[in-house]
Amino acid sequence: MAIEKLVGESIEQKKSCNLCKEASLETGKKTDYGSIIVFRIGTGTEDGWFATLSPKTGGLEKDFSLQLMPFSHLTHFAQLLKYSKLAKNYGIAFAKLNHAMAKVMAEESKKFKLTAKSKYSAISIATYGKCTNWKEKKEHLHIKIFPFSGNIGQPYTVDSSFGKKKEFNDKTGKSFVKMKPVEKIYIPKKRLEILSVRLIKILEDEKTW
Length: 209
Ligand SMILES: [Zn+2]
Hints:
The protein contains 5 helices and 9 strands, in the order H-H-E-E-E-E-H-E-E-H-E-E-E-H. The protein is an alpha+beta fold. Strand 7 and strand 8 (175-177) form a beta hairpin.
């Protein structure tokens, strides 16, 4: 698709979009869904992003996930090409959120030791994002960032590690792999609050180069 044909924000979808409503909330505020705004960058629809701490997890100990979204109702990653400041701030926001998540994971678990030699080397973080069909401009663009564990309850993409799983055959001869059932749980209220306060503090302290 040629750049000149890239479409902008879907104004008609804004009214019924919950993420568009959340975009106006200040850092620290809770959304109707129960997530907490932990980060904002930019001032308007052509440069702004916000991130939330999700109230639910894939059911793993000390798990948590972040979600990054533009202020504007964009539905395709390609649309970032239309707004250069938005694209620039996406990179900054993505880097900061990943850094903040790694820092919290290191603080919470000894297995993610920080050493001068290999900072964050033992910390696996994954991301997930998708574009909807170009004609059906519905879903507000969002990117999930989370500690990677390979649990099916996580929003992870099927990658090479999935391909390495042992294969079984059913009665018809079709092959399949075994996975644990999807289980989503709410993060305890107190922990969600502590996590959000810590993340906001780290994200405020982080420098932008
Ligand atoms: Zn929206």
